[in-house]
Amino acid sequence: MGNSSSMLTQYDIEEVQQHCSNAFSQQEIVSLYKRFCQLDRNGGGFVSAEEFLSVPEFAVNPLSQRVLRMVDGLNFKEFVAFLSAFSPRATLQQKIEFIFKVYDSDGNGKVTFNDMLDVLHDLTGQFISEKQRKQVLTQVLEEAGYTKDSLLVLSDFVKILGSSGLKMEVEVPVD
Amino acid sequence: MSSSEGKLKPSSSELDLDRPNIEDYLPSGASIHEPHGKLRLRDLLDISPILTEAAGAIVDDSFTRCFKSNPPEPWNWNVYLFPLWCSGVVFRYLILFPVRAIVLTIGWMIFLSCFIPVHFLLKGNDSLRKKWERVLVELICSFFVASWTGVVKYHGPRPSMRPKQVFVANHTSMIDFIILEQMTAFAVIMQKHPGWVGLLQSTILESVGCIWFNRSEAKDREIVTKKLREHSQGADNNPLLIFPEGTCVNNQYSVMFKKGAFELGCTVCPVAIKYNKIFVDAFWNSRKQSFTMHLLQLMTSWAVVCDVWYLEPQNLRPGETAIEFAERVRDIISVRAGLKKVPWDGYLKYSRPSPKHRERKQQSFAESVLRRLEEK
């Protein structure tokens, strides 16, 4: 692709595979590497926010900024680890953990009312007023047995999302 | 409950994005599910479909695929084939290339020695001068094509010179223009380039009647549309050739056609161009190579083999919008040239998508939330 030696050795592949807990096959890791190099246009060894946003399909996603915060500047090994939650081999627990991390922007293990409100804002934009958002969120929280001041932790998320038949998978194209 | 706020606000971005629904083209998967039933906490917290779309775009997206170079498969890996390949390289660079360069130089000399006198001496007699200049431009283009050992097969009836018609074609490289021009002297609309290409544009191409635009100027579009309309109405102007994709694509996909060519009130004649990848990848990846390097690459390849199809002229159907017309013609060309269609605007190479797309998604989610809140 025109940049520096972009060849993965067998050792590199195995290292990456271990780091992502075998979420991807070796062929998939090679494909992901090609993709990583394709996105990393300036060859810096990581994909910057600009480079991610130059993919229009990503830029139009309502949660692009949140995802960007998690994926910006990662090297290839960490990039694959990030994507491992989307592998069909990932467990439901791993997927719920990922979702929890998206909500828990300050990383303290607790999701507050405001955290949830922020994500809801990203999802609905200007089409619901702030007041309505708060109303909706308070209502569904109370119906589920929480209050406005509840701090949700990972186990709460597992309880809430665990039975919903969560599907969160992407297919890595392997040629 | 009060109705959801506001309709989609007009976007402030320059990109014209009132396109057909992108969701028809994008991988559907999780976004198809129509949620029903009373709104629960888990429905608000479950952002998995949207995250899946984001991750899907990171892993593979249809836009980047359009601009990926696809060089012919390297075959020099075997100990017996390798020497053969090496001698091929030697032949191409040390024999073919100099011969081609000489042919091209001779062509330029003939061209300039005829063009310059014709241009200045026949200043008074416009129609005769134009006729000669047309012939000469077709000639120099033939020399260019010969310099890459271009093997072009034209299918379909040769374009005729009539007013109120424009030609549209898919775009892979600037050589598209040269290949078409050697058959018929078209007037073309082009982005003004720097360097020697720009010089050629302002002198020689001026004579066949070219229109310039500047991609980065938003207001430019109205001026350009006006010029296009004027040109296409003129009876003795050369037929206008437009590349509605607005940028070079890798000859395996086609991006959205800009509607400008389709709202001139003219007949649109589609032209499909397909390059044979076995010989050379003719895609000009302007992010990677300058045009000079691209030409040199072509001149050191074995040949440029392509098919050109002149397809049946199309008119705007009653009740059809310009955008629908553009899509219909894009369909005709893509089918003929074996291109996959993607729902993206080629100019997204240079700028970000309009917030309208994201807003549409947000609006549909917001409406679904409010609706389900009402349900018991």
From TrEMBL, chain A:
PROSITE patterns: EF_HAND_1 (PS00018), EF_HAND_2 (PS50222). Keywords: Calcium. The keyword Transcription does not apply. Residues 27-62, 91-126 form the EF-hand domain. It comes from the Eukaryota. Signal peptide: none annotated. This is EF-hand domain-containing protein.
UniProtKB/TrEMBL annotation, chain B:
It is found in: Membrane. Keywords: Acyltransferase, Lipid biosynthesis, Lipid metabolism, Membrane, Phospholipid biosynthesis, Phospholipid metabolism, Transferase, Transmembrane, Transmembrane helix. Pfam families: Acyltransferase. Residues 165-276 form the Phospholipid/glycerol acyltransferase domain. The chain crosses the membrane at residues 77-95, 102-122, 134-154. SMART domains: PlsC. Belongs to the 1-acyl-sn-glycerol-3-phosphate acyltransferase family. PANTHER family: GLYCEROL-3-PHOSPHATE ACYLTRANSFERASE 4, ISOFORM D-RELATED, PHOSPHOLIPID ACYLTRANSFERASE. This is Phospholipid/glycerol acyltransferase domain-containing protein. The lineage of its organism: Eukaryota, Viridiplantae, Streptophyta, Embryophyta, Tracheophyta.
